[in-house]
Amino acid sequence: MEEIFKFADKLNSSYINFRENLLNDRRFKHADILELIGVKRANSLFQISLAGHSVENREIFLIKTGKGRQKIFLWSQMHGDEPTATAAIFDILNFLAQQQDFQAEIRAILENLDLYFLPMVNPDGAEVYKRRNALDIDLNRDAARLEAKETRLLKSLRDQINPEYGFNLHDQEIYYAAGSAPFPATISFLAPSFNIEKEIDEKRLKSIAQIVLMNKVLQKFIPNCIGRYNDDFMPTAFGDNMQLWGTSTILIESGGYYSDPEKQTARKMNFICILSSLYSLALNNKDTFDIKEYFSIPENKKDKFFDLIIRNAMMERNGNVYIIDVGIRNKEISSDDFRTYSRRAVIADIGDLSSSYAYDEIDGNGLYVKKTNPNQSENLLIEDHADFWLVKESGEKVYKIENGELQK
Does the pTM exceed 0.90? Predict the structure, then answer.
């Protein structure tokens, strides 16, 4: 394990050398991937094939490298608005292709593993930055019926490759907490169940072992910011069915981190933990682990985070004064081409938010909430645009919140 830790430390410090700079933000599209595919095609290290097409006839490519006996299949962006791991895949490909550093580790990976990457499974969804495909089908809930072209393709590739391990790469909302503590779930893992009883057979145990390893690695870089998904069996989900079909499957979900709206921290953590796992598998690492280590990873808590919380402010209504917390979340408003977005902050919750957390907080003790627009109702309401003052009882203005941000 010590060798894996050293490898991860070095990956962390040198990541900038491998980061794919064409994918600088989250809203890249199929055309950007095509450009990168063209670059990789010129490198003999990679065998690139046209795996199939989406509903709207966009190409989906399979990238193969390595010559080992152990087959590993990694796929990303089944949901079009979940691109973090797609970027990380191209970071990993850059790492494997470079010839300046990590040569012993790269040699071990490529000689012992047979790697298959399927980035951007849902290019139609990515084009308009939405979760579902062009038929409005959730691809990750189509593993049983296989109605969509993209899911039939994914199942067909799994059957052809017959991988020992599968990495199912997704994004989750930035408002998940890692358990009941004030930390965002920047990365969340799951070794999916393959039946309602949630049994643990040899295949699932292998998934769990890799997650335990990756959790240990990431705790050094994002301590306390790692969660675990509930393992209730989902009969239409791909991860659960991949496990059922015989591939040891590892779900990785990319969440939020402090001051990181483009999820670049989660992207880097994908790069580090996936490569650490691959290197461990290449070395045939036999470190023992206690299964309790997996179940000790705190379970994801949905909707526990806000972008901003105003704590202990006062609100006056009909001559009465109430102590309230105000939770604010940002909504993204897409541009016409879906490449960029504007941000609209809204009041997401009002009341006692003492068991919730935020990326930023303001102590509103002794201050009253007052709308900034005199033409608006004085009442602060859920889904209101987050524009208001925090004022003293005398009326003196102390803080201005404009579009959910404190104005300095």
Answer: yes
